[in-house]
Write a structure and sequence with these properties.
It is built from 3 helices and 3 strands. 38% of the residues lie in helices and 14% in strands. It has a 3-stranded mixed sheet with strand order 1-2-3. With 90 residues, it is α+β, with helices and mostly antiparallel strands. The protein is globular, with a radius of gyration of 13 Å. α2 packs across α3. It has one domain.
């Protein structure tokens, strides 16, 4: 199996869109994409870093608490079908 070296979120998103045009992407969180991952029965999907997502919301003026609440209820808790992205907490 060939392994690709994709080092930036932009490169990962571009590659993901080319190999799975049905992959769901979260609007406004492109810089938080840290990888491409698969679950059984799906094509490749986006992998987001939770902390980076929270930081992006805070950079737009949200408090940490408001950013976590928004992310939890409006992004992390959303099921958009089998092409829903993964979120990691490291």
């Amino acid at each position: 199996m060939m392994k690709l070296k994709l080092s930036t979120p932009k490169e990962m998103i571009s590659h993901l869109k080319a190999i799975n045009h049905e992959a769901v992407m979260y609007d406004g969180f492109d810089e938080a994409v840290v990888g491409i991952i698969e679950r059984c029965g799906t094509g490749p999907l986006a992998l987001y870093d939770r902390e980076k997502c929270i930081k992006l919301l805070m950079d737009k003026g949200s408090t940490r608490g408001d950013a976590e609440d928004y992310f939890c209820h409006n992004v992390e808790g959303t099921w958009a079908g089998p092409n829903t992205p993964f979120i990691t907490s490291v």
